[in-house]
# Entry
Amino acid sequence: MRIPPLYKSRTWQTIFAGMAVGGIISWIIFLYIYGVFHEEQRALIWQQQNEITDLKRKNHILQEDQKATNEKTKKILTIQDVKIDIINHEQYDLDLLAVHSLSSDVKKDLQNLLTKSVQSVSENKELLLKAIENKTYTRDNVTYHFLVRSIHFDTVLEISLQIKRG
# Structure
């Protein structure tokens, strides 16, 4: 079996030459299109990396500013209300009106604490305890003293008191 000598035929030579030139031209076009596309993608990635870097920097600055603001507001947090809870009023058979009257008397004594910072009031906790425990309250010709059981410092100052007759 013998391969025919096609390399001598002019038509086959032009077909093969056309295929080779077409392959080279198509490869050049492919490389050009791929290069342009790749360059556009690199420019887009570079732009996005710059935006990410800027946003990270801005985010870091905003977080630091927020931390500073939170620390400042923690220091400036003020007492806005006083809540008094008398825990053993059932032991002395006090009705709700008497309990309310006694708690409002204690609130009246603590009105000067409103709009004070929570930090300054919590630092003077012992003074607050002495002020409540050393004061006598009178209701229906009966004298009452209070023992402070718990104090919670927040924007609402919550004080739990225990009644002691005396």
Remarks:
- The helical segments are 10-76, 96-109, 118-123, 125-133.
